[in-house]
Amino acid sequence: MKTAILIALLSVAAAAKLPAGGADTTQVPILRQNQVNPDLGAHNFEFESGNGIVFQEAGQEGAAGGATRVGSFSYPQEDGSFVEVKFVADEKGFQPESSLLPVAPAFPHPIPQFVLEQIEFARLEDERKAREGKAL
């Protein structure tokens, strides 16, 4: 019973710190918006909002029946700097490009000889099984 009362009091205290309505309902104006669809399947869309978000994208049907889209978006961070992401989306998938995206670290050392020998052993085993007609 004491636990239930404590949880209720903590909930009321936490709720008191929330802004009225529980969420920020500030409206953000759209400063600029342009959309062009000259041909079926082709398009160009861009907008800029009052909070610094800028988005632009152009696209068309792909040669293999899919779609190709090229664009970018940016938004301000709390420190005032801007994040910019450029992207291409096509038959190879979504390919973003940004200085904020993580990059895989370089391999820290050469591959040890015993690992190379194990890889070679596995390759030779696969070849032997294939010659003997066994499933891999």
Structural commentary:
This protein has two helices and six strands. A six-stranded antiparallel beta sheet has the order 1-2-3-4-5-6, with no helix packed on it. The chain has helices at 2-16, 113-132, and strands at 30-36, 43-49, 54-61, 67-76, 82-90, 93-97. It is of the alpha+beta class and 136 residues long. The chain has one domain (2-97).
Brief sketch in words of this structure:
This protein is of the alpha+beta class.
Question: How many β-strands, per DSSP?
Answer: 6
Q: How many separate domains make up the residues?
A: 1
Measured between the Cα atoms of the first and last residue, the distance is: 63 Å
What is the global morphology?
Answer: elongated
Give the averaged pLDDT, no decimals: 82
- DSSP summary: helix tally: 2
Low-confidence stretches: none
- By secondary-structure content and strand pairing, the structural class works out as alpha+beta
Strand content: 25-35%
What order do the SSEs take from the amino end to the carboxyl end, as H and E? HEEEEEEH
Largest sheet: 6 strands, antiparallel
Biggest sheet strand order reads: 1-2-3-4-5-6
Radius of gyration: 28 Å
Helix content: 25-40%
Task: Summarize the helices and strands and which ones pair or pack.
Blueprint lengths: L1 H15 L13 E7 L6 E7 L4 E8 L5 E10 L5 E9 L2 E5 L15 H20 L4
Antiparallel strand pairs: 1-2, 2-3, 3-4, 4-5, 5-6
Question: What key phrases describe this protein's structure?
Answer:
136 residues, 6-stranded antiparallel beta sheet, 2 helices
